[in-house]
């Protein structure tokens, strides 16, 4: 029996397993909406909705060893829904004090770097995109946790990550 099975079983029987689950997978769940470049508030909403969905579906989870994958998929669906909804809105932040705004040239340079990075990232295959997003947003996750979340073999996470980063570097150099 793996640790997720024990924790889920403990939570179902009223023990303190929920805190263990949240602590174990919090950064993974948080990394998904942030990888969609959602605002902090929207990412927090997705994060909360994902945990709410887990609480609602907890008794239906048949394979606790795949919990990380279930959480990533649920957070991804929630993030896509937010992106679609936000695509119909125009956001204006009129309450930002002018003194804290960066200089226009700093904004232009930052925007250009981000645009090039995201352009290069989006040309990678889906597996590399997902792996690099999780690595960037949840670097503390073990290879086993990343492998579980992405449905990969643990032994291939490091080499795949290296190949993906090398490909991303090549694509970024080509964009300069």
Notes on the protein architecture:
- Belongs to the sigma-70 factor family. ECF subfamily.
- InterPro entries: RNA_pol_sigma-70-like, RNA_pol_sigma-70_dom, RNA_pol_sigma70_r2, RNA_pol_sigma_r2, RNA_pol_sigma_r3/r4-like, WH-like_DNA-bd_sf.
- The protein contains 8 helices and no strands.
- With 176 residues, the protein is an all-alpha fold.
- The protein folds into 2 domains: 1-92, Rna Polymerase Sigma Factor, Chain: A (Orthogonal Bundle); 102-176, Winged helix-like DNA-binding domain superfamily/Winged helix DNA-binding domain (Arc Repressor Mutant, subunit A).
- The longest helix has 20 residues, at 67-86.
- It is globular, with a radius of gyration of 19 Å.
- 20% of the residues are buried.
- Mean pLDDT is 81; it is low at 11-15.
Describe how the helices and strands are arranged:
Layout: H1 3-12, H2 17-35, H3 40-57, H4 67-86, H5 104-123, H6 126-137, H7 143-150, H8 157-175
Task: Give structural attributes.
mainly alpha; single chain; Arc Repressor Mutant, subunit A; Rna Polymerase Sigma Factor, Chain: A; DNA-binding; 8 helices; 2 domains; Sigma-70 family RNA polymerase sigma factor; RNA_pol_sigma70_r2; 176 residues; sigma factor; 72% helix; transcription regulation
């Amino acid at each position: 029996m793996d640790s997720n099975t024990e924790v889920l079983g403990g939570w179902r029987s009223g023990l303190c397993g929920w805190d263990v689950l949240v602590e174990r997978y919090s950064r993974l769940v948080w990394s998904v909406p942030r990888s969609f470049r959602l605002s902090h508030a929207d990412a927090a909403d997705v994060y909360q909705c994902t945990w709410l969905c887990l609480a609602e579906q907890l008794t239906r989870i048949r394979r606790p060893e795949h919990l990380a994958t279930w959480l990533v998929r649920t957070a991804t669906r929630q993030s896509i829904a937010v992106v679609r909804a936000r695509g119909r809105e125009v956001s204006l932040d009129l309450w930002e004090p002018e003194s804290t705004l960066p200089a226009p040239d700093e904004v232009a340079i930052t925007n250009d770097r981000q645009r090039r990075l995201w352009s290069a990232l989006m040309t990678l295959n889906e597996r590399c995109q997902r792996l690099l997003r999780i690595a960037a947003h949840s670097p503390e996750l073990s290879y086993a946790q990343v492998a579980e979340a992405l449905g990969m073999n643990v032994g291939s996470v490091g080499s795949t990550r290296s190949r993906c980063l090398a490909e991303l570097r090549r694509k970024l150099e080509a964009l300069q």
